[in-house]
Sequence to fold (226 residues):
Amino acid sequence: DQQVKQNSPSLSVQEGRISILNCDYTNSMFDYFLWYKKYPAEGPTFLISISSIKDKNEDGRFTVFLNKSAKHLSLHIVPSQPGDSAVYFCAASRYKLIFGTGTLLAVQP
Amino acid sequence: DTGVSQDPRHKITKRGQNVTFRCDPISEHNRLYWYRQTLGQGPEFLTYFQNEAQLEKSRLLSDRFSAERPKGSFSTLEIQRTEQGDSAMYLCASSLEASGGAPETQYFGPGTRLLVL
Fold:
């Protein structure tokens, strides 16, 4: 069973616009959520996280929103840049990470 | 110390051979995790250590897989009698156990890409 789902395998946005990546989870026991960015043949790079006691966390161009009642989180990137093009994974944690299947973001110049 | 390192970065082997991968975590991190990623999937948890103690093993980790973390520093992951289905990216991550059960962030190494022919 897929406890963490990213239903959009890919997303294409124009440079300067907003990118919104979505993630759903099923287990209400998760207490920490993270977003990672991954380039081919490299390990995931940590981007931003949010604790289950919060509903928003912001770091520069990246903002993560958590809706616990809907078991949904999203990552907003504003403004999007071509260097943001990568696969983005959301992960849920109770110590070990449970990952979604990723969304490939392509930012067009 | 610049982050988690893994060695080798790439490994090609023939079916039936044994392989061993090494992970060096961030020096002050006491937790170390192994994950496996196959094409089109997110990383999947294999096992984790707190200091030198292996605290959990996934059911993905068959008896051909063994992991160690002697002295609570670097870790090795060995696969015996490799099969073509073992071909994947093997990722190592480390974290520092937070006080009071606070959330902790895992930092990943570059991975070891294994190809079993």
